[in-house]
Design goal:
Layout (H helix, E strand, L loop, with lengths): L2 H21 L1 E6 L4 E6 L4 E6 L1 H5 L3 H28 L10
Antiparallel strand pairs: 1-2, 2-3
Length: 97
């Protein structure tokens, strides 16, 4: 197979995956839904929702832990989704990953 054609196909696949990653959003929550975070495939947090009950408890340390747990879970979900996308990457003429 022509190496230039192979590189062109790989570049098209990379561009497609980058677009899909940019459009991807995951949602994660902690504390039974007390804190919910939305994160993009590029790890940008686009939304944080905190249930008023979590604030009413006046327990700042608990709220901090809930926010951290939701962020950590969102990050894990993004990484899992990215790994799944990359595992499906097949370049003609090359063995799979």
């Amino acid at each position: 197979m022509d190496m230039r054609l192979l590189m062109k196909q790989a570049q098209k696949m990379q561009e497609k995956i980058q677009k899909e990653v940019a459009a991807m959003q995951v949602e994660a929550s902690s504390g039974g839904g007390m804190v919910t975070v939305v994160m993009t495939g590029s790890h940008q947090v686009t939304s944080v929702k905190i249930n008023p009950e979590a604030v009413a408890s006046n327990d700042a340390e608990m709220l901090e832990d809930l926010v951290l747990a939701a962020l950590t879970e969102a990050h894990r979900k993004v990484e899992a989704a990215l790994a799944d996308k990359m595992s499906g990457l097949k370049i003609p003429g090359l063995p799979g990953f």
